[in-house]
């Protein structure tokens, strides 16, 4: 049942069901208007207005990303616990700063150019294959392969060994959903163990056979930095590499899949984009705003904090509803309209502050290349089936979307 003005304060994120997972936006709108600071039975709060979301994301001094306290009861002493509490995104300075600095060179403009050539080739290959089939699932036959291969390149995972990466990423991230089953947790734990074992072998192989041209191989660079004594432990390298795959892969797949769904749901916007390809950049920003791949982030306050006039004690856990903020009418004019030319568009789909998505330029580039080529080659793209979504609320995922590719 949808939230109303009267029931908005009773919203419980850990109990949301099918209706919310499929389309959270009506309830986000009600929360934003009638319970912008929504207290949860476990003492945590949901914030949904743009200004509050930005404040919590930006102020790393007052709002911590360290998840050791939160993940202990959730994951116990498990592989998922070890993974999530070692990745940079769930840590504060100084560890966060140290890892972020080591990763920074991989996201420089120069490196991005090399990646763009590889993404362009990959998209051409996928569209060649798709052209023969005419009707394809845009998720499994297009959107998945682009970021998977890019992150595979980034980590220096050989092409023939990339198949299990997607499954591992899905299972590990599934453990972060507010609603999850014991089976999901044990599958997530198994996935972390399998992934760790694989990366240990890969690291040993790279040590024995150093790559001639490290190129954009993050894993190899981190190993060398560790061996030189100024880097991370092997376990830290492994968990940050796993995180890189999870961060870079599922979210970008969702961006491309949700973007296709949006263009098909808004044919006038698709026509506009075809007529004005220069709108591609703003169109991708609008896809990120309208269907944010990461819908909800988290922080814990270190000090008493006042939000919406209410003072919350230090230690309060915050659910930061990025997807709700991105449709806040206080920030965006006509926020429920999907407008490929929207400007300005200061969405928070990539977060904000010190944890601002390190791979934002990579994700933007991948989506721009994918949509430029898809639309140019198949301008009469048509829907051939419904947009099938799993019941997940932290991530905005598409499982299947069949499209007919007409030139
Ligand atoms: C559409 C695609 C993507 C979206 C929507 C997205 C979203 C986000 C968000 C919201 C955060 C901040 C989380 C927080 O503050 O708690 C984040 C962090 C991060 N993302 Fe992305 N991301 C995307 C693609 C990528 C890609 C392609 C990569 C790398 C190849 C990547 C690497 C990272 C890393 C390393 C962090 C952690 C940054 C830090 O803690 O300093 N992301 N991402």
Q: What's the helix and strand layout?
A:
Blueprint: H1 18-22, H2 25-34, E1 37-39, E2 45-47, H3 50-58, E3 63-64, H4 68-75, H5 79-86, H6 95-103, H7 109-133, E4 135-137, H8 139-143, H9 145-155, H10 163-174, H11 182-208, H12 218-227, H13 234-265, H14 267-275, H15 280-290, E5 296-301, E6 305-307, E7 310-312, E8 317-321, H16 322-325, H17 360-377, E9 382-383, E10 402-404
Parallel strand pairs: 2-8
Antiparallel strand pairs: 1-2, 3-5, 4-10, 5-8, 6-7, 9-10
Helix pairs in contact: 4-5, 5-13, 7-9, 7-17, 9-13, 10-11, 10-13, 11-13, 12-13, 13-17, 15-17
Bound molecules: protoporphyrin IX containing FE.
| pLDDT averaged residue by residue | 94
Provide the structure class: alpha+beta
From the alpha carbons, calculate the radius of gyration and give it in angstroms.
21 Å
Strand order of the largest sheet: 1-2-8-5-3
How many structurally independent domains?
1
Strand content: 5-15%
Query: Major β-sheet, in short?
Result: 5 strands, mixed
SSE pattern: HHEEHEHHHHEHHHHHHHHEEEEHHEE
| CATH-defined topology | Cytochrome p450
Helicity level: 40-55%
Say which molecules are bound, naming each kind only once: protoporphyrin IX containing FE
The CATH architecture would be: Orthogonal Bundle
CATH superfamily: Cytochrome P450
Q: What's the end-to-end separation, in Å? A: 42 Å
What general outline do the C-alpha atoms trace?
globular
């Amino acid at each position: 049942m949808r939230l109303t003005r009267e029931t908005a304060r009773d919203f419980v994120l850990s109990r949301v069901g099918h209706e919310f997972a499929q389309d959270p936006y009506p309830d986000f709108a009600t929360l934003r208007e009638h319970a912008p600071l929504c207290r949860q039975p476990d003492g945590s709060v949901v914030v949904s207005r743009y200004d509050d979301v930005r404040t919590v994301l930006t102020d790393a001094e007052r709002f911590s990303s360290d998840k050791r306290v939160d993940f202990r009861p959730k994951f116990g002493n498990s592989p998922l616990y070890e993974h999530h509490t070692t990745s940079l995104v769930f840590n504060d300075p100084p560890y966060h700063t140290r890892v972020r600095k080591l990763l920074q060179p991989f996201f420089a403009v120069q490196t991005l150019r090399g990646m763009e050539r590889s993404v362009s080739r990959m998209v051409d290959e996928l569209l060649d294959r798709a052209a023969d089939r005419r009707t394809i699932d845009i998720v499994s036959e297009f959107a998945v392969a682009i970021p998977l291969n890019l992150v595979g390149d980034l980590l220096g995972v050989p092409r023939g060994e990339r198949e299990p990466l997607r499954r591992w990423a899905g299972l590990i991230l599934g453990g972060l959903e507010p609603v999850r089953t014991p089976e999901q947790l044990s599958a997530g734990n198994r996935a972390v163990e399998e992934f760790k074992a694989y990366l240990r072998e890969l690291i040993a192989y790279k040590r024995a056979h150093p790559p001639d041209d490290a190129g954009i191989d993050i894993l190899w660079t981190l190993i060398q930095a560790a061996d030189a004594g100024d880097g991370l432990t092997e376990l830290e390298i492994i968990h940050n590499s796993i995180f890189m795959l999870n961060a870079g892969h599922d979210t970008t797949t969702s961006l491309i899949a949700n973007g296709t769904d949006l263009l098909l749901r808004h044919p006038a916007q698709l026509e506009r984009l075809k007529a004005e390809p220069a709108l591609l950049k703003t169109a991708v920003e609008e896809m990120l705003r309208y269907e944010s791949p990461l819908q909800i982030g988290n922080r814990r306050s270190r000090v008493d904090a006042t939000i919406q006039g209410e003072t919350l004690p230090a230690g309060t856990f915050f659910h930061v509803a990025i997807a709700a903020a991105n449709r806040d009418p206080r920030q965006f004019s006509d926020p429920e309209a999907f407008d490929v030319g929207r400007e300005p568009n200061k969405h928070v789909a990539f977060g904000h502050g010190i944890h601002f998505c390190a791979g934002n330029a990579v994700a933007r580039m991948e989506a721009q290349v994918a949509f430029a080529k898809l639309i140019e080659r198949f301008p009469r793209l048509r829907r051939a089936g419904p947009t099938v979504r799993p019941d997940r609320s932290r991530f905005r995922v598409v499982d299947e979307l069949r499209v007919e590719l007409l030139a």
